[in-house]
């Protein structure tokens, strides 16, 4: 059942100023000050006077931020008061000691020895030896750091960036997230690349069906007929090393050529790229990642980890944000959730909204021993090596023996890659030892023994491949 928090959060993410203010007010009234301050600050940056006022109060009281920040509070109150928001003007007067401009019948001349009320300049700027003022906010670093480390338990403001370098503490959003982004190669033929992938015959058929559906809708649109916008998000299910990431990259290029995506890039993330350290920040961080993926594919590896945990877990917040975002933005974005079979099934069962929005489930089977031999051969050809004829029996023996072991630990194509790299190391020792001029040909003796590559436990006899 959707909670009030989730409902308001979903509306705030895609809604207008009113919806965002309502969510910020809800967080403040329920003492979720970190999240309240974040959303008030967003509105304040957009010039909302009421939000500037509420953000200032939180800064002044040290709620939602590591330390009370009077300077920031005064700055926001000043902006709000200049916009005519009277509560801000009154609070500014209370903090700075500057009284309201009210009419007075008192004609008594001012006492020259009596100091007037503090002004903004008195509070915010530091006096120099000659009596002038320099543009430096009053602060005492030693006192601030002492309070931060010993009194409040929070780190000093200077250390905030070290906590989460992806968060922009000045602007209040995750603008600095370092993401792995794969841009499509304009000269690369995605269909030829897909065809060149070893195995995955069922996958290729599914992608052809999806492509036909996209082209069909495009033709109906050209003919002036009504079209339907279907959900084209994917679940990739398979053990490690079965090609999920590679296919996601090809998918971005194919969907760009089909005009379903404007850019075709692939943003590759895992749980750590979506989850933030503070309650409420996960929604903001996940939304920032989704925005970076617009025009392409967001590939979430090990997506099942978002549903793991007990009680209130940040992963639930990320899933809620993703589902709401793709529901309200049904074009120019494809999300792919990937992971191992059993845990991905558990993820889909944990949230009914996932199954309805991620209609395409593509299974990546484990590679057979013969397919692993082909992958090994492809590594050789791609890296300018040649397999001598006597290596094939050794390769088949190696990969058949490997299939007696649990595939998630073995790694499928990753195991083939490890075997290839070990073979090159063996070849290097042989060539240098014998001063062999042939730098390209791999021989039987270069193929590693399985015992040197074994990772995992024996399979049950029912799972053995002949």
Query: What number is the mean pLDDT?
Result: 77
Major sheet characteristics = 6 strands, mixed
The strand order across the widest sheet is: 3-5-6-7-4-8
Find the CATH topology of the largest domain: Rossmann fold
What is the radius of gyration computed over CA atoms, rounded to a whole number of angstroms?
Answer: 31 Å
Helix content: 40-55%
At CATH's second level, what is the architecture of the largest domain?
3-Layer(aba) Sandwich
Any idea what the CATH superfamily of the largest domain is called? P-loop containing nucleotide triphosphate hydrolases
Q: Helix count?
A: 21
Classification by helices and strands: alpha/beta
Distance between the termini: 48 Å
Q: Estimate the global geometry from the Cα principal axes.
A: elongated
Low-pLDDT runs: 100-106, 112-128, 130-162, 456-466
CATH class of the largest domain: Alpha Beta
Number of domains: 3
As a percent range, the share of strand residues is 5-15%
Strand runs, count: 10
Describe the model.
This protein is of the alpha/beta class and 466 residues long. The chain folds into three domains: 4-100 and 116-124, Serine Threonine Protein Phosphatase 5, Tetratricopeptide repeat; 181-364, P-loop containing nucleotide triphosphate hydrolases (Rossmann fold, 3-Layer(aba) Sandwich); 369-463, Helicase, Ruva Protein, domain 3. Helices cover 51% and strands 8% of the residues. It contains 21 helices and ten strands. The chain has helices spanning 4-14, 17-29, 33-45, 49-61, 70-82, 86-96, 120-124, 141-152, 160-163, 190-196, 201-222, 244-257, 271-274, 281-293, 314-328, 341-350, 352-357, 369-382, 391-402, 407-410, 413-434, and strands at 126-127, 133-134, 180-182, 234-238, 266-269, 297-300, 334-339, 360-364, 386-387, 441-442. It has a six-stranded mixed β-sheet, with helices on both faces. The radius of gyration is 31 Å and the shape is elongated.
């Amino acid at each position: 059942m959707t909670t009030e928090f989730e409902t308001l959060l979903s509306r705030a993410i895609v809604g207008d100023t009113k919806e965002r203010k309502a969510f910020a007010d809800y967080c403040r009234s329920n003492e979720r000050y970190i999240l309240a301050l974040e959303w008030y600050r967003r509105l304040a940056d957009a010039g909302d006077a009421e939000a500037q006022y509420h953000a200032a109060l939180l800064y002044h009281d040290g709620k939602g931020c590591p330390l009370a920040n009077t300077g920031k509070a005064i700055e926001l109150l000043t902006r709000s008061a200049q916009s005519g928001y009277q509560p801000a003007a009154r609070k500014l007067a209370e903090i700075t000691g500057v009284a309201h401009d009210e009419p007075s019948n008192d004609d008594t001349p001012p006492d020259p020895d009596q100091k007037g009320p503090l002004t903004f300049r008195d509070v915010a700027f530091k006096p120099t030896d000659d009596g002038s003022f320099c543009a430096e906010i009053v602060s005492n670093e030693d006192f601030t750091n002492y309070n931060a480390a010993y009194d409040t338990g929070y780190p000093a403001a200077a250390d905030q960036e070290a906590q989460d370098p992806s968060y922009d503490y000045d602007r209040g959003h995750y603008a600095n997230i370092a993401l792995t982004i794969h841009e499509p190669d304009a000269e690369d033929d995605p269909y030829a690349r897909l065809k060149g992938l070893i195995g995955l015959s069922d996958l290729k058929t599914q992608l052809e069906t999806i492509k036909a559906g996209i082209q069909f809708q495009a033709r109906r649109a050209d003919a002036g007929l009504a079209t339907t916008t279907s959900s084209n998000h994917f679940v990739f299910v398979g053990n490690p090393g079965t090609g999920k990431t590679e296919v996601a990259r090809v998918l971005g290029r194919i969907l760009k050529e089909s005009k379903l995506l404007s850019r075709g890039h692939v943003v590759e993330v895992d749980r750590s790229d979506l989850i933030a350290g503070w309650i409420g920040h996960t929604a903001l961080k996940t939304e920032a990642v989704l925005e970076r993926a617009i025009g392409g594919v967001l590939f979430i590896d090990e997506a099942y980890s978002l549903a793991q945990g007990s009680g209130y877990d940040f992963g639930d917040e990320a899933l809620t944000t993703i589902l709401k975002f793709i529901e309200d933005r049904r074009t120019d974005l494809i999300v792919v959730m990937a992971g191992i079979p059993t845990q991905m099934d558990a993820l889909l069962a944990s949230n009914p909204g996932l199954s309805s929005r991620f209609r395409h489930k593509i299974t990546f089977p484990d590679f057979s021993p013969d397919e692993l031999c082909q992958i090994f051969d492809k590594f050789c050809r791609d890296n300018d090596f040649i397999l001598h004829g006597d290596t094939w029996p050794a390769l088949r023996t190696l990969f058949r023996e490997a299939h007696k072991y649990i595939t998630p630990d073995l790694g499928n194509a990753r195991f083939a890659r490890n075997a290839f790299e070990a073979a090159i190391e063996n070849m290097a020792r042989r060539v240098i030892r014998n001063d062999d001029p042939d730098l390209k040909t791999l021989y039987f003796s270069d193929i590693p023994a399985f015992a040197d590559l074994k990772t995992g436990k024996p399979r049950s006899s029912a799972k053995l491949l002949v």
